[in-house]
Design goal:
The structure is a single chain. The protein has 422 residues and is α+β, with helices and mostly antiparallel strands. The protein folds into three domains: 12-128, Acyl-CoA dehydrogenase/oxidase, N-terminal domain (Butyryl-Coa Dehydrogenase, subunit A, domain 1); 138-259, Beta Barrel (Butyryl-CoA Dehydrogenase, subunit A, domain 2); 262-417, Up-down Bundle (Butyryl-CoA Dehydrogenase, subunit A, domain 3), CATH 1.20.140.10. It has helices spanning 12-37, 41-44, 50-61, 79-92, 94-103, 105-113, 116-128, 260-293, 308-335, 343-368, 370-373, 379-389, 396-410, and strands at residues 138-139, 167-171, 174-186, 193-199, 209-215, 221-223, 237-248, 298-299, 302-303. Strands 2-3-7-6 form a four-stranded antiparallel β-sheet, covered by helices on one side. Strands 1-4-5 form a three-stranded mixed β-sheet. A two-stranded antiparallel ribbon has the order 8-9. Helix 6 runs antiparallel to helix 7 (116-128). The radius of gyration is 21 Å and the shape is globular. The two termini are 39 Å apart. Bound molecules: flavin-adenine dinucleotide. Flavin-adenine dinucleotide is lined by residues 98, 102, 138-141, 146-147, 182, 184-186, 232, 388, 391-395, 397-398.
């Protein structure tokens, strides 16, 4: 079944891009995610893992660089096209979406730095990589600090008493990094680069953060073991350790904590709209599973689709997909076109889409009955993945609190304050 896209503004090119992304999600992502999800974490990253072939195919088609502009070798898509592609990929596998998104973290750091040296060294090679060999990850959270990293507006945020443990000290023309990042750093087991958040001004607590690109093959960098999670089992994650790691000063592209607040807002605007699109794809996948099952399963002498209560439940699921799509597209169209972005819109899209996707995954299992719980059907995976999305990139509660803070901080807005990007 093809889910109709009712957006009358889609051009022929948009529709062609959507079709291609769907073919990739269906023919490459889903089978790879299924296969990877059955392997142990160690086997997933072994030399003979299907991960490498998946990455190669994704990079060849440019799906590792969906949000990058053409000038640096990215896909050069419009914001609407980005949203469309990310939704299709989310339909394929939310775990592999995160894997590909994390792979570009250091390259995104280079892009945000606007430093030609970093663009040359990191961003352009990543975007033009066709074999999957250049892979980054984004290390923010620490064993002792998860939601703390999103404490914008909280009284503790600029207190020296609560601060990140992973820190960097300037020594001549090098920064020296020490500390540990949490076990949840997506893609870290296979990453050769990292964008890492570091304490650079201890007197300012969490507000005293800088951001650096760290190649993970330099002395002092090491990794923990990959581990198993409830959902997104195709996604590898592990800790990162930094033991007096020395990087050239310019790799610390955000070296002044005064910029952390606007940087953090921009990151939230970007991350959240992306996860919202992935979750939309998941919500749609759950709806489609349930919708087609209703055409096959007979109970009470008639197809499920003929029962009133099933029709009602299916309609609620459909409404949730449309809500997710409307909100996530709107957030990408807005924050993909302006600078600085409005994080509250992306956070609204992420928190709503992930919650509705979880409800759809739950309802899909209800409609499939015991089949829905069986690994023979896709619904049980969607349910597990949807649960992870409620924590990935910040829990719903934490993000809502941050979104509320931004809302009060920045209103009223004026049209003049919106800067369109080139
Ligand atoms: C699939 C997935 C991918 C991830 N990828 C990455 C990655 O690539 N890089 C990375 O750095 N991290 C990553 N993470 C980590 C993720 O960002 C954190 O798990 C998330 O921010 C929550 O932190 P935590 O797990 O430490 O929970 P905690 O912060 O310990 O929260 C536990 C509970 O307490 C609540 N809580 C916390 N603080 C407060 C407060 N101040 N007031 C009230 N309630 C509060 C929370 O809402 C939650 O319910 C990933 C996580 C997942 C699940």
């Amino acid at each position: 079944m093809r889910y109709l896209d009712i957006d009358l503004n889609l051009s022929k090119e948009d529709i062609a891009i959507q079709r291609e992304a769907h073919e990739f999600a269906k023919g490459v992502m889903r089978p790879a995610a299924e296969e990877l999800g059955r392997l142990t974490p160690e086997k997933q990253i072994a030399d003979d893992s299907p991960l490498w072939d998946f990455l190669k195919q994704a990079y060849q088609l440019g799906y590792h660089a969906v949000i990058f502009p053409e000038e640096v070798g990215g896909m050069g898509l419009t914001p609407l096209q980005q949203a469309i592609v990310m939704e299709e990929m989310g339909w394929g596998s939310n775990g592999l979406c995160i894997q590909l998104g994390a792979a570009g973290a250091h390259a995104l750091g280079g892009l945000m730095s606007m430093n030609p040296e970093l663009l040359e060294e990191f961003t352009i090679p990543f975007c033009n990589c066709k074999d999957g060999s250049i892979r980054g990850c984004w290390a923010v959270t620490e064993p002792d600090h998860g939601s703390d990293t999103l404490g914008f507006g909280e009284s503790f945020f600029d207190s020296p008493e609560i601060r990140p443990n992973c820190r960097a000290i300037l020594d001549g023309n090098e920064w020296v990094i020490s500390g540990q990042k949490s076990a949840w750093v997506s893609g870290a087991p296979v990453a050769n680069h990292c964008l890492v958040h570091l304490q650079i001004d201890p007197d300012r607590g969490f507000a005293g953060i800088g951001a650096a690109i760290v190649p993970l093959d330099i002395p002092g960098c090491s990794k923990g073991k990959p581990h198993e999670m409830l959902g997104m089992r195709e996604l590898n994650q592990c800790e990162l350790y930094f033991d007096d790691v020395r990087i050239p000063a310019h790799y610390m592209f955000m070296d002044n904590a005064d910029y952390y607040f606007p940087f953090g807002k921009q990151i939230l605007a970007g991350f959240n709209m992306t996860v919202a699109c992935f979750a939309t794809g998941l919500a749609r996948a759950a709806f489609e599973e349930a919708f087609s099952y209703c055409h096959e399963r007979v109970q009470g002498g008639k197809l499920l689709k003929e029962h009133y209560s099933v029709k009602r439940r299916i309609f609620e699921m459909f409404s949730r997909v449309e809500t997710c799509r409307a909100l996530s597209r709107r957030a990408v169209e807005l924050n993909g076109s302006i600078f600085p972005g409005f994080p509250e819109y992306s956070i609204a899209a992420k928190t709503v889409a992930t919650e509705l996707a979880f409800q759809n995954a739950h309802d899909a299992i209800t409609i499939l009955g015991a089949n829905g719980l069986s690994t023979e059907y896709h619904t049980e995976k969607l349910f597990r993945d949807a649960r992870e999305n409620l924590i990935a990139d910040g829990t719903t509660e934490t993000l809502q609190k941050v979104g509320g803070h931004f809302l009060f901080e920045t209103y009223p807005r004026t049209r003049e304050s919106i800067n369109r990007m080139g």
